[in-house]
Specification:
This protein has 376 residues and is α/β, with parallel strands linked by helices. The protein has helices spanning 14-25, 36-56, 69-80, 96-107, 125-131, 154-164, 185-188, 237-253, 256-271, 299-308, 327-332, 336-340, 353-371; strands at residues 2-4, 63-66, 87-91, 111-115, 136-140, 169-173, 192-196, 207-211, 276-278, 289-294, 311-313, 342-346. The protein starts with a strand and ends in a 5-residue tail after the last helix. Bound molecules: pyridoxal-5'-phosphate.
Length: 376
């Protein structure tokens, strides 16, 4: 099998599994227990928090573990939008867990403004700034798109927003950018930044929210006071230590040059297929996602034919791929036909050139079959 859907989820690294196994069997104690075994587990969490913090360029006590990035993003939006009289501005290109949360806030009476994407797939700066004013309490723009891999210049946008609305919090969903581009939160100038474990070799069910020490944010889950009183619930120790182990391995294996080589290869090969267009080809990207469209075909059929041939590829966001159409690609200006035929390859540091070559061969063959009506 060739797996090119790593933006949906990734296999768990052996190092992460090993770390999990240890805290599930030997060191299974509750980190809130005050005997020495509990304190030992608490120390494991502290160590893991330090690893996440160093990957984000922040202090350990600015990292809050959550059950996933969906939770981290919901926390950032619902509790960050603290002044109900103010407004929040969210990019139209956001993952469903930000976009739908923003729509929920809108339906509960908050002034929510959506900023357009430009044809390069970036949050449109002029439109964003036109929607920000002195009453803006939160702005949310994702760092890298899960649909296209396009990077938003968060360092630039966050500073431009703060010049217009000095009190606004700047949140970024960093899930698809984390460890794949510069995600130093200080350089990005963000107040809140969400990450997820299962995109980088940790298991599903662990995420984190960076909350700058400058920011006072309301607790998201009330209870026993874990995560410094802001996110109660007995810690997912297995997920937390696995997340840290996966980060170490991913950082070791990933290089920007290698990611760009993979992207260039995929773009070149896909570009050579009849009637195939790479989406946002000229934009600044992480290199780990290549979106393309075979207009006139149906993506779900190509995806299923490739799956039958042992090649797993994606169709935009895995969470929303069953929903009709694609809001983000429509925003970028793709036609309905292009959206219907839109697919996504996403790589891991382990993806080889041979796998990309074989996958594109299989994709090309299936597009031809479908166009030639040779599908039963
Ligand atoms: N944000 C982006 C950009 C994503 O790609 C995803 C997952 O697909 C999420 C958020 C949600 O992450 P999680 O599965 O940890 O809730």
């Amino acid at each position: 099998m060739i797996y090119l859907d790593n933006a949906a989820t990734s296999p768990v690294y052996p190092e992460a599994l090993e770390a999990m196994k240890n805290v599930c069997t030997a060191d299974y104690f509750n980190p809130s227990s005050t005997y020495s075994a509990g304190l030992r587990v608490r120390a494991r969490i502290a160590e893991a928090r330090g690893t996440v913090a160093s990957a984000l360029g922040c202090a350990p006590d600015e990292v809050y573990f959550t059950s996933c990035a969906t939770e981290a993003n919901n926390w950032a939006l619902t509790c960050g939008a603290k002044n109900k009289k103010g407004n929040i501005v969210v990019s139209a290109g956001e993952h469903a867990c930000v976009y739908e949360c923003a729509k929920f806030l809108l339906s509960s009476g908050l002034d929510v403004r959506f900023c357009k994407l430009n044809s390069r797939g970036e949050a449109d700066e002029a439109d964003l700034l036109s929607k920000v004013d002195e009453s803006t309490c939160l702005v949310s723009v994702m760092h890298a798109s899960n649909e296209t891999g396009v990077i938003n210049d968060i360092a630039h946008l966050s500073r431009a927003v703060k010049r217009k609305a000095p009190r606004a919090l700047f949140h970024s969903d960093g899930v698809q950018a984390f460890l794949k581009t510069d995600n130093d939160v200080g350089r990005l100038g963000v107040d809140l930044y969400a990450v997820s474990g299962h995109k980088v070799g940790a298991p599903k069910g662990i995420g984190a929210l960076y909350i700058s020490s400058r920011v006072k944010i309301r607790p998201f889950i009330h209870g026993g006071g874990q995560e410094r009183g802001l996110r109660s619930g007995t810690e997912n120790v297995a997920g937390i230590v696995a997340f840290a182990a996966a980060i170490e391995r991913y950082k070791h294996d990933f290089t920007h040059e290698d990611a760009m080589k993979k992207r260039d290869l995929a773009v070149k090969l896909l570009g050579g297929l009849e009637g195939v267009k790479v989406i946002c080809e000229q934009s600044d990207v992480t290199g780990m996602i290549v979106a393309f469209t075979a207009a006139g075909t149906k993506a779900e059929i190509i995806q299923s034919m490739c799956s039958d041939d042992g090649v797993l590829i994606g169709r935009g966001s895995a969470c929303s791929s069953r929903l009709a159409g694609n809001r983000v690609l429509r925003e970028i200006g793709l036609s309905s036909g292009e959206i219907e035929g839109a697919l996504r390859l996403s790589f891991s540091p382990e993806t080889s050139a041979e796998e990309i070559e074989e996958a594109v061969r299989v994709i090309g063959r299936n597009i031809e079959k479908l166009r030639g009506g040779r599908v039963g």
